[in-house]
Amino acid sequence: MTVFSARSWASLFHQRDGRLTREQQLTPGGFGLGRVPESNKPDATTQMVCGYCATGCGLNIHLQQGEAVGLTPTVDYVVNRGMACSKGWEALTVLAAPDRATTPLLREVSGQLKPIGWDAALKEFVSRFKQIQSRHGEHSLAFLSTGQIATEEMAFLGALAKFGMGMLHGDGNTRQCMATSVVAYKQSFGFDAPPYTYRDFEESDVIVLVGSNLSIAHPILWERVTRNPHDPEIIVIDPRMTETAMQASQHLPLFPKSDLTLFYGVARILIENGCIDRDFIDAHTDGFDRFAEHTRGFTLTRVVTETGLSDEAVLQFARTIAHGRRVSFWWTMGVNQSHQGVRTAQAIINLALMTGNIGRPGTGANSITGQCNAMGSRLFSNTTNLLGGHDFTNEQHRRKIAGILGIESARIPAKNGWAYHEIIEGILRGRIKGLWVIGTNPAHSWINQNQCRDILDRLDFLVVQDMYHSTETAQRADLILPAAGWGEKEGTFINSERRFGVLKKVARAPGEALADFNIFKLVSEYWGCGEMFARWNSPADVFQTLKECSRSQPCDITGIDDVRMIDERGGIQWPFPAGCCDDSPERRLFEDGVFFHSDGRAKFLCGDPKPLPEPTTARFPFILLTGRGSASQWHTETRTAKSALLRKLSPQNPYAEINPADARTLGIAQNDRIILASQRGRIRVRAFLTPAVQPGQIFLPMHDESTNQLTDSVFDPYSKQPAYKACAVRAIRDG
Amino acid sequence: MSRISTEIAQKNTVCSAGSRCDGDDDGPSLIAFLLDDQQSLTAVDEFCRQDERQSKPAMAKYYTKLMPTAPPGPGQQYAFDVDLDRCSGCKACVTACHSLNGLDTGESFRDVGLLVGGTTANPLLQHVTTACHHCVDPACLTACPVNAFEKDAHTGIVKHLDDQCIGCQYCILACPYEVPRYHRGKGIVRKCDMCSERLSAEEAPACVQACPQQAISIAVVDVEQVIEDSEANHFLPAAPEPRITLPTTRYRTKRVFPRNTLPVDYYSLNPQTPHWPLIIMLVLTQLSVGAFVIGTVLESALAAGIAAAFHAVHSTNALLFGLLALAASVLHLGRPLWSFRVIVGLKHSWLSREILAFGVFAVLAALYAASNRLPGIADGPRRMLGWSVSVFGLAGLFCSIMIYVFTQREFWSFANTATRFLLTAAVLGIAATWLTILLIGLGSPSLRELTRGTGRILALSLVAAMSGKLLFEAALFRHLATRTNSPLKRAAQLTAGELSNAALARFACGLLGGVAMPLFLLLRTFPSGNDEMQLLLSVVVAILFLACLTGELLERYLFFAAAAAPRMPGGLRP
């Protein structure tokens, strides 16, 4: 007998199999998954909605003994059909980060954050906040909420803060992204109601994208565009050549913030050439003649002068709309984050209304939302609106909600609270002394950052409730409350097309981190208003309450039995009133031409374009644009930067895009270190020379911490949304 | 959810009975309850299970059309087909590869780069997804000393045998596309195998399944067509020269790329990872080979008595450095235990050949060093042994040169590599000989003769060799004036920029050890009776040797760090 056979001798010198090979072995995963890594073979799968953007993709979570070991995009989810972007694929990875907050942290006199238990933390929370209230009045406390927690949690927070703790002022970070659309829709349609369903991307023959880099910011919605079988004309309106503009059939690189002029000019051309749907206008709208009159001043010459586009480009755009049978208009932050965002959004709405491009397949004036639950926040966060899209100043509404919640209606403030920037100003003026920040990062994301940080530092007590203790805001907090994240808790999200999706608990939160819902529950108990929330015991309970709040509203969801029904149906779009028999998975609004104003008509609203709030000068000769950097980055990167892979797929250093011609004038070469300065700050970045940005303009991605040191605190007068997209800067070589 | 509801409801009853719940009594117990509840996972209990038995992949309905209808025939192979007009830069392919293949933190076999160019009126932004190109003539496969790469005869897929790999990382240097990646924890490289396990079960590779725009598909390509396309440089603008390995990936676009299309990271200068064990190995083997060659020459020239004394010290000296070099080279391997496998790659791998040549060199050198003490070895055979040590040493050195030449990097051209390596052998061979002279001198009176005659020649040759080498290296900086961003210009920029400290130190060491010290030796005499002068001589020779050695190590560090690797377009890294 030989110790080694010939075969094993051979494998000693040439080994085809073994431990290392087996580590990469795949195995059929079952559950319709195809092959998966052997060690991750699931024993069950469950589907839930993604927690990054408002596309609201379905993710199929692979479970072993109830715990997530992997994920794949859900194949039969109507939103994403088996696809996800890089962030979605990495959604579980970022939960296991070393800087997760695992215990409450209290800032000591020495300035160090020290771990404490929940009991001590909550006592500190209550005593400090109550002390502030007793000294400075009930309204000296405020909260800043988020579009990234579950609807039920937002509702709990809003109700607890305003009805239980006596706060008046509270706002969400949705002010930074969606407020403009909210106001535009409310004024035009009578309710904050994005009318579309994603299927409209596939049914249009003309798709107009305004201020939206869809293929980078919403890759899965871009997927829907690419699946359009009608070979659509795609028009991108954006000062920059973006990835989306690259793939468009028409790119209109107009002068920053001149879109309002462009849309009025195009409306004039359409009206003068009779390319409007008179029947629709007469039957379903109000104020058209006034609007037509208003557009008269927007001659082609004026449009060309103010937008910097050619005659032909403008006429071609107008012709394309006129000839389109199913024209859909879509916008995101390029419109919303503007000093005249509401009027611009409404100019888009007007184009859709006057051409009858609404309520039909492949049409609509459609705002695409940013955060996973911005839409939940818009209806149920109890900040700008009273729960369920109601009005704080309306007594009937207050009584209705008080009745549903079983509280005295006097507990509900009869006044609207302050918007985000008014809260920040309130701190500066000494009116707000205590602030509770939940799941957002103003010290990075708020406009004019240096000032914002200075103001936050003036607070008597700042509480930050977040998944990570490392955010720029958490680092300034007096008390950090550790929150469980997406995948570690339950609830619902509402996506951009009004679809409820389900959140499930598939991962264990680290340490003593708790679901935001349960933190609110604890705060209510420690604050002494636990009785008021006796029925608020689980997100599922609260969902039932929210259903009641929605009754008879445009967002009525009383027909949804429970969360399980949403899960089984692959998401349900609002409205879904009791007795709703339309169970098609993709539904749009206004198919009957009836809008939500009391007369059922949509309104044409318009105003005069205003010049750039901070025009360029000899000292600050460039217009600074900001926006999404890459598809693997998200907002302030509190989550995406926790994935090694997403980090690898993101730009390596802070950089600014500058046109090569400008760079040549300034003596700046590719990759040079440069200094960008505005009246508010100076930052150091690297130069990325690219003709994608127009001469006279500089682009900075919003993800870099320093970007908002330059931006200017200017707000849309109606929506109070910050105008991140344009301010004046100068650039010089560093050293 | 029901459990928590009931529990909390019960607590609430208690609270409301006591009229006010201020947390003093019930708070902590509620906290304990909620913390406990937070750790219980509910998704499976709360929601109905999906059907476990469904074994057919649900995604098949989307990806079937992205797969070839028939397997490759003779003269054909599988290839990735990328529709650039669809690639939008979402990078889902990268994350899906990582996730569906169960790769480690940050590891993925796919990457996405960006091409830019054009004019302000018509700018270009083109994302490019890239993975292994499953080349017709894979450089990784040829380079690998242990045959850890296989090109499947039917599918053409280039597969890496993880268990065969010894972690030498030569494939990483050889592949023009940065495809094989080293996994430090496992001590091996890993790479894309086109998900061959999936393909053979008619499932699509991870990246094909995951691309929302369906930009990636699997095609069957004709090998002849690949060769023709490579000849015509019809691959991807600004990608490495396809003629080297004949990559099979088909990049398609209807767009006409502007003539100034470049990768967005084209001007980014990043020093390459220096491989310190390799640096030490190269420099010390060259020292050893140089020392043996010079020693053998000297021995035949010197008088018999002195020659014997010289041989005893010098061959041991040279051997020790040689052995140190081989020890260092082992440290470079991820799995050194399996290094004996290099024998299988002799037919094609310069690394195998190098290891074999230096292996024989080391054995012969040891015999030669010991030959004085071994009885019965005549002078003739001993001399023959000496020459054969030199021959195998030079053969090994030639293999070392070819290892880098094979990668076809401009900075590692034959002229550049051979000049550096041979002059290092000369410079350090002489320096080591001086060290030998010093060592002999400390115990023997024969020093005087050595320093006088031979020493003079040695010192002069050292000055000549080192000056020549430094001038040759400094000549790199002439590329700074080149207007295009050639690989040599990048090497010059890196050397003059980020690596300038190392470069300054390199030239300082070279001048000190290779010029100043030998000149000093030439101009002074060192009478043997004078202890003070002896000490001075020791110091001078020690400085000469250490400075020369340090200088060469730094030179070799720059050789690695400044050699811009060819690669596919990368991401933004200003």
Q: Could you characterize what this model shows?
A:
- The complex is a heterodimer of chains A (735) and B (574).
- With 735 residues, chain A is α/β, with parallel strands linked by helices.
- Chain A is built from 27 helices and 28 strands.
- In chain A, the strands form 7 sheets. A 7-stranded mixed sheet of chain A has the order 7-6-18-17-16-8-9, with helices on both faces. A 6-stranded mixed barrel of chain A has the order 23-27-24-26-25-28.
- Chain A is globular.
- The N and C termini of chain A lie far apart (77 Å).
- Chain B has 574 residues and is mainly alpha-helical.
- Chain B contains 19 helices and 10 strands.
- A 3-stranded mixed sheet of chain B has the order 8-1-9. A 3-stranded antiparallel sheet of chain B has the order 3-2-10, with no helix packed on it.
- In chain B, a hairpin with a 4-residue loop joins β6 (181-183) and β7 (188-190).
- The longest helix of chain B has 31 residues, at 531-561.
- The radius of gyration of chain B is 32 Å and the shape is elongated.
- Mean pLDDT of chain B is 90; it is low at 12-23.
